[in-house]
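SEQUENCE-TO-STRUCTURE ENTRY
===========================
Question of interest: how does this chain fold, as expressed in C-alpha cells?
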Amino acid sequence: MNGVELNALRNGNQQSPVLESGLKSSFINDGHDDEDAFSENGDDEEALLSTSYEHRRNDRSVVKAGRWPQVKDIVIEAAPTLLFTTIGLLFTGELLDHVSRWRAMREVDQLIMIIPVILNLKGNLEMNLSARLGTAANVGELDEPHIMRKIIFGNLSLLQVQATVVSFVAACVSFVLGFIIPRAEIPATQPSESALATRQLLGLLPRRPRPTLPPVDTSRKFGIHSFFMVVSTAMSAACLSSLILGSFMCTLIVICRRYGRNPDNIAPPIASCLGDLVTLLLIGVVSTLLIPFLNGFIPILVVIVVLLSFFFSFAATYRNLYVKDLIKQGWVPLFGAMIISSTTGIVLDLFVSRYEGFALLAVVISGLPGSVGSIFISRLSTTLHAVALSAAPSGTFRLSKNAAEPSSNLVMIVLILITIPVEIIFLSVLHGLGWLHPPFLFIAFSVGFFCCAVTASLIIAQSLTHFLWSRNLDPDTYALPIHSALMDLIGQLLLVLCFEIVTLLGAVPHTKAALEAN
C-alpha cells in the first residue's frame, strides 16, 4: 500500500484496486463486525503477534491462537533466519576480500569504490520489496491468483527501474570519490595510496570486513572508457541481481503464505543478506567479463541494452495500477540512508585499525540488530495496514488510537531473547575458527552492548514506523532504509564504547593474524 492509498483511506475519496482486494482478505470476517478482527480490548496485539494467517478459499478469517503458540511461531521463523543472515554477512565479507584482488578491480579502482555505495542502495531496495510483498501476503492480496500475478510482476518491473537508477547514481558517486581522493607515488615496499584510499571508501560499507588490497598501479584512470566500464558493470550487475533476487523473494513470500508462515519474520533479513552477497558476486563476475574490452565498444553496448530494459520496465510499471504510484516514492530515504552510511564509514575507518577484531564484530553488532528491526518494522506495517483495511469496509477510514499504536512489548521481548543466542553462537564460531580470541570479560561486555543495540533497534523501529504512518507515508517504503542506516551507525558507536571500556580493563581480544605476528 502506498501513500496515495493511505490518503484515500483517510479522506474516503477513492478505493484502489489493492484495497479492494485487501478488503476481501483474511482481515475481514464474512458476516461479522470489524470488532471480531480487531477489538478495542487489545486484539491489535494479537494481530502483531499472529504469524500464521490460514489460507482458505471459502473462508479467509483470522485464526486466533493462544499467545504462547504465537510466540513459538516467532521463534521458529525468526531465529533460523537471523542465524542464516549472520553467516551470510560473514561470507559477504570474505567474498569482498577476494573480489577486491581481481584484475578488474586493480585496473579500474573506481569499480571497488562503487561496491559500498551500490550495496547500500541495492540492499534497501530488496528489503523494501520484501516488506511490501509481506504486507500484501498477510492482508490477503496474494490469495487471488490474477491479483498476485499483477502485484508480483509490477513489483519486479519497479525493482528493475529502481536498480537502474541507483546503480547509475552509485557509478557517478564512485567517479566523484575518485577525483576527491588522491593517489600518490610511494615506495613499492609500502601499501599504495590507492589501496589505503580504497580501504577508506570501503568504510562506507558497514557490517563488512574491509579487504587487504595488494599494491596496484598508482595511475588512476578517468577516461570515457573507464566511466563506461564502471557504469556498465554497476547497472548490469544491479539489474541481474534484482531479477534473480527479486524472483527469489517473490517465490519465498508466496511459499510462506501458502504454508501458513509469516513472511514478515523471514523475508526482510534474507533480502538484506542475499542482496549484498548476490550483487557483490555479480559485480565481480561482470567486471571480469568486461575488463578485456575496457577500450572497446562492448561496455557502451551493455549500457544501451540496460537502458532499453529500463524504459521497458518503466512502461510496464507505469501501466500497473498496483505499483504505479511507487515510481515517485521512496527515493529520499534511499539516498538519505546512503549519506548516513557514509558517516558510519568514517567511524569504521577511525577505529578498525585501532582495535583488533573490530571489523569482524561490526558485522554482527550492526547487521543483526538491523535485521531484527527490519522484522519488527515489517510486522508493525502489516498490522497498521490490516487495521486500516478492517476499519474501512466501505472505503472510508478513521484511524483509531489502537490501530495507530498497536501493543508490541511482547514481540520486542521475544525478538531480544532470540538474538542473544545468535550473538553467542557467532562469538563461539569466531573463537572455534581461530579468527578471534576474546576474554570472558570482553564477551560479557560485548553481549551487553549488543543487547543495547537490539533494544535501540526495536525502539527506533516502532517510533519510526508510527511517525511515518502518522505522516501518510508507507513504512514499507520509507522506514527500512532509514532504520538500517541508523543502526549501522549506532551499532558501531556502541562497539567503539565497548572496546574503550574493555581496553581500560585489560580484556582486549586478539585476532589470529595478531597472534601469528607475535
Observations:
- The chain has one domain: 67-517.
